[in-house]
Design goal:
alpha+beta; binds FE2/S2 (inorganic) cluster; elongated; 7 strands; 8 helices; five-stranded mixed beta sheet; 247 residues; binds iron/sulfur cluster
């Protein structure tokens, strides 16, 4: 067992500020993850060289790979830091913020663009008031099984980070919102607003900008079948466009 845990962390004091790297060395303990290392640094923010520094900022919430808030680059791979186990990582453990979202501070990024994309595609089922609506439509177990993986999306941003088409030069909304269109357009109640969702995927930033490189599915921590979603929703969008064109 190593006697220390060595970390190299990309630091940035505020949005738009220059970044720098700092090194930290912690006493080794078994079964630590990246978040527990960051908590140790927070308790004693001193670099490996013995220089006092500001505590490292990061986001987290659930600590069990459900909320997506702790997503960052760990040894160059985009993933959730709460489930990144030190004992399974090469050292020094290199931590950096995701590159496709603006840095707020250190490892915290502003993922608002992703949430705006969910609003654009109306990734929800509208309800008419708050009175009891009675039982919902029945779904076969086959439909439920096909829909379930998409319901696990935690808007973590891994698929955007890996996508060559998702960057600050394009408006492309990325794979996760397309997965949500697949989810809600496949639901008998959600289907009532399918046209709005499909029209939201036409034009600039829409599904036509997907380069089909399939990086998104490869990095999704929830194994969401994003390639299937892109193919199925792409067909729905094409049919909608033809219907619009020929009335
Ligand atoms: S589709 Fe997967 S990678 Fe993309 S935001 Fe959802 S959970 Fe994360
Ligand atoms: S298939 Fe490629 S271009 Fe399309 S969303 Fe996935 S990673 Fe991006
Ligand atoms: S803290 Fe929620 S996924 Fe890591």
């Amino acid at each position: 067992m190593p006697s220390t845990i060595e970390l190299r962390i990309k630091r940035q004091d505020q949005p738009g500020a220059p970044s720098r790297w700092e090194e930290f060395s912690l006493p080794y303990r078994k079964d630590m993850n990246v978040i527990t290392c960051l908590m140790e640094i927070q308790r004693n923010p001193v670099t490996r060289q013995g220089k006092p520094t500001a505590p490292v900022a990061w986001d987290c919430s659930c600590l069990e790979e459900v909320c997506g808030a702790c997503t960052m680059l760990v040894n160059g791979k985009v993933r959730q830091s709460c489930t990144a186990l030190v004992d399974q990582l090469a050292q020094p453990i290199v931590l950096a913020p995701m590159t496709k979202f603006p840095v707020v501070r250190d490892l915290c990024v502003d993922r608002q663009r992703m949430f705006d994309s969910l609003i654009r595609v109306r990734a929800w089922i509208p309800i008419d008031g708050t009175y009891a609506l009675g039982p919902g439509p029945r779904l076969s177990s086959t439909e439920q099984q096909a829909a379930y993986p998409y319901s696990q999306c935690m808007t973590c941003g891994c698929c955007m980070e890996a996508c060559p088409q998702y960057n600050d030069r394009s408006e492309f909304l990325g794979a996760a919102p397309i997965g949500q269109v697949r989810l809600f357009n496949g639901h008998p109640t959600g289907r009532m607003n399918a046209e709005e969702r499909l029209r939201a995927l036409m034009g600039p930033g829409g599904i036509g900008e997907c380069g089909k490189a399939q990086n998104c599915e490869a990095v999704c921590p929830k194994n969401i079948p994003l390639n299937d979603a892109i193919a199925q929703v792409g067909r729905q969008v094409t049919i909608r466009m033809l219907k619009d064109l020929f009335g």
